[in-house]
Write a structure and sequence with these properties.
Pfam families: AAA_26 (PF13500). InterPro entries: DTB_synth_BioD, P-loop_NTPase. This is Probable Dethiobiotin synthetase. It comes from Saccharomycodes ludwigii. The structure is a single chain. This protein is an alpha/beta fold. The chain has a single domain (3-219), classed as Rossmann fold. Helix content is 31%, strand content 21%. It is built from eight helices and nine strands.
Length: 221
């Protein structure tokens, strides 16, 4: 069986990618990797967030980012403040995991966020990982907000990925925020595979309900 890698991207910034990634890590008993982390001058970083917010008894392996940049900007813009840093797509090699444990990879921002000085974007990183890891089953999960604006952002994100030749790698979309049946129904009518709806979680009980609402990875594959 091919080892499964789930690349988590978003339709916007502060969309809840790290929270959803953490849910997937614990629901699917997966490991975690953030290839590029920005904003470390003012934030602990998403890997630390995953490490300190344990949702179950699962103890994931957390792989360190390939790049950690100081400014809370896109990697392309953050590199302007660190001229000695030169990100290249070939620098990104999936961490080695020896068993069949899935790996959740959390991207920086959305699919069109520029990563390199050649203006290569998140989509190019996904395609690079697919090309260099033919022995792995790489799937994409889109995290979208539930409220106003999500139809345009989500449909554009999905269309972009499909046009980039990644249709067969789309696993589905997770809608995050106050439940909005109208938006979810509309997304489905446009062909978006909404695999879960995650309400705002404040208490442990709410988080446990959210975990239960995520289908098993096997059922989606």
């Amino acid at each position: 069986m091919l080892k499964t890698v789930i690349f988590v991207t978003g339709t916007d910034t502060d969309i809840g990618k790290t929270f959803v990634s953490n849910l997937l890590v614990h629901k699917w008993k997966a490991n975690y990797w953030k290839p590029v982390q920005t904003g470390v001058e003012s934030d602990e970083g998403d890997t630390t967030t995953i490490q300190t917010n344990k949702l179950t008894n699962w103890d994931p392996t957390l792989f360190i980012p390939r790049y950690s940049l100081q400014k809370p900007l896109s990697p392309y813009q953050a590199m302007e403040f660190e001229p000695d840093t030169q990100i290249e797509l070939n620098d990104f090699i999936l961490p080695k995991f020896l068993d069949n444990t899935p790996l959740v990879v959390e991207g920086a921002g959305g699919v069109f966020v520029p990563i390199t000085k050649k203006l290569e974007i998140t989509t190019d990183l996904i395609k690079h990982l697919i090309k260099t890891n033919p022995e792995k089953n790489i799937k994409i999960v889109i995290v979208a907000r539930s409220g106003l604006g999500t139809l345009n952002h989500t449909l554009l994100t999905q269309e972009h990925l499909q046009n980039a030749g990644l249709k067969n790698h789309l696993l589905g979309c997770i809608v995050n925020g106050t439940p909005n049946k109208g938006n979810v129904d509309c997304l489905r009518k446009f062909g978006v595979n909404v695999i879960a709806e995650i309400p705002k979680c404040v208490t442990n009980e709410e988080t446990n309900i959210a975990l239960e609402g995520i289908p098993s990875l096997e059922s989606l594959l």
